[in-house]
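Hi R.,

Here's the chain you asked about this morning:
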Amino acid sequence: MLKIAKCCASKIIELNPGNKRLLDDCNHVSGDIYNFKVSEINFHPVLKDVEVMFWLFLLSMRTLSDCDVQAILRTKNSQQEGYQSFNEMLDNFNKSTNLRIEKVGNIATSKLNILKEMIFIGKAMAVFAYELLSVSDYYPKISEIEEFKFLKHIRNGAAHNNRFNFQHKYGAKKGLWNIDEKEIIKWNGLEISRKLQDTIVFNDFISIFGIFLLTNFLSKNLYELDKAQV
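And the predicted structure, written out as tokens:
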């Protein structure tokens, strides 16, 4: 069972054998926790690559921050010809995330700051999910639902310096708004409106976990469209 805090802006992963917490130090929990079984997540083929990206990120953070895994990798990299550079990559990872491994008896606890990595992957997932949907055969139908419009604004912000921007910057439409004055686009308790102009998207408004849940929601919509065509 994986637990995800709603709108979580977590920046710390803390891992130890007795308490494997993927989320710690959540700033925007608001009492809502999502529980789901990994085995029950199965994105629609159109969005499958986004799901894979998410799992790879979590697995890599979990694996690379593990004390035993790092020790095994360093030993093998030192012994195998041509693999020494991978130890340098581990050093760079440890420095970038400020990885600290604390040992008490036989128990090792890893702590690392992955805020930069979460922001990067969150932006990439948002852009990727939107582009996959926009070039799919489902676009004419799914583009009309509110959740897709929500994703579109997340994508636009992620691709433009990670800030919401609802005004055209160039061309004949320069200065014009692409969202109506009183328009509010909602998903899962979050609201997008002109009030968010020039505010930060990741991780202030939404996180990697939020974009994963949004993409999962849209994935279910695609499955429903498939059923309707049968």
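Helices lie at 48-64, 67-79, 84-97, 115-134, 139-142, 146-159, 208-229.

Let me know if you need anything else.
M.
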